[in-house]
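Lab notebook page, bench 4
Experiment: in silico fold of construct C2
Operator: M.H.
Input chain length: 232 residues
Purpose: comparison with the prior construct
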Amino acid sequence: MKKLLDKTCPVCHICLISHNTLPRITVKDVSMNENVPPKLSVRHLLTTGDIARYCEPSVKQVNRWMQKGDIEAFRNPGGHYRVTKTKFREFLERNGMPIADEFFTAPHKKIMIADDDAAVIKAYSLLVKNHYDEVVVETASDGYEALSKSGSFKPDLLILDIRMPKIDGLEVCRRLRENTTAGPGIKIIAVTAHSEAYDRNTVIDAGADEYLIKPIESNTLLENIEKLMINK
C-alpha cells in the first residue's frame, strides 16, 4: 500500500500534511478494483466473514470471488478485504441470489471525541468526517463532559484522551463500564501522549478496548475505528 502521509503534526499528534489540512485517505490495493469510493461508510462496509455468513460459503470461497473480481473489493488500512454493501448487493443481483432488505439497512454510527486540546478534537473530527460517510460526531473537552454527553448521545465509539481535567480518562472508562445503561456497549479507544504514565494493562483493565500512543498515524486511527465499529 502506498504510504500517503509521512509528517506528524506536533500540535495534534496525528499524522498530517499540515496542521490545517487533513487529507482524505484513499484505501486501495492495486491488485484489486481501483475505483475505491473516496468516502467510506462504516455501516456499509462488509468483511469476508459477513459475506460468508450471508451466503454460507467458506471464507476461502469469498476470497476467491474477490480475487476473480466477482465481488468488487478493496483493502482497508490494515490490508484486510472490505466490500461496500452496494457492491455486495450488485453481486447478489447478478447471480440471482436472495436479498434480505433488512441486511442492507442500519442506523447511523456515532463517534464521540473527548480531549482537552481543541486542535486535537478538530483534527480527529475532520479525519473521521472526511473518511467516513454517515457518521455523527460529538465532542467533549473534559472527562465530566464526556460522561455527561455519553448518557444522552450514546456513542458507538469513544476516542478518549486519558489525561484530561475534572475527571481523567481512566475514571471515565471505569464509570462507563459500571453504567449498565449507557456504558457497556460503548467501544473505547484510549489515547495519550504520556505513555510513561499509563501502561497498556492498566488502561485496558480500566475498560478501554484499545490503547494508542500519540502521535497517532491517520491510518492507524482509522484502522482501529473500523475494527471496533464494524458489526458492533
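Observations: Strands lie at 45-46, 74-75, 81-84, 109-114, 135-140, 157-161, 187-192, 210-213. The two ends are 27 Å apart (CA to CA).
Next step: discuss at group meeting.
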